[in-house]
Structures are given as C-alpha cells and as structure tokens.
Amino acid sequence: MPRSVNSVAKRARRKKVLKQAKGYFGRRKNVWTVAKNAVDKAMQYSYRDRRNKKRTFRALWITRINAGARLHGLSYSQFMGKLKANNIELNRKVLADLAMNNPEAFKAIVDKVK
Question: What's the rounded Cα separation, in Å, for the pair 80 and 68?
C-alpha cells in the first residue's frame, strides 16, 4: 500500500504561519523554521502584553491623577481617600482624563472633597 501524506494540510499550515510572519525582517518572513519560531514568540508576547497593558494604563492614570491633585495641595492617596469618603464613584480613567483635558472640572471635584 502506498504511503499516504497529507500535503494539502501541511502546505495550508505553513502558508498560515508565513502569512502571520509577513512584514518580519530577513529570513523570519520566508523560511519556515525561522518564521514558525518568530510567530510562536510573537504570540506569546501578544498574550502576555494584553494583560500588561491593563497594568500600564492603570499606572498612567494614577500618575496623572496624582499630578492633578498635587496642583491643588493633595497627594494621590489623600485625594482618593476623600473621594471614597464622600461617595464619589468616578473611576481612575475618567479622573485622569479630567485632570489632563478639563482642569476646571477636576478642580471642582477637588474642591468638593476638601
């Protein structure tokens, strides 16, 4: 009995990976073994960094809120504590946006909690 090889599926699998490697530099874009390793690593990075992005943005928001609060004589922790005490439920994303793009509205919030 002749040997059965599924070349169609093999070629499709390789085409899929090489398509994902499009735009890579050098042999990473057109040599199967190098491209497969590069795409595998890229997928690991993308999975990891989808989670890291959330941490990074939270840190950025906290930095912006802290800068805005310090302009009005409060630290970040004092400001957030007073927000909670006054039952003002604005998340960090909104507060950071106000601190950056609408300083008078942020000042009104600071004055309300003081």
Answer: 12
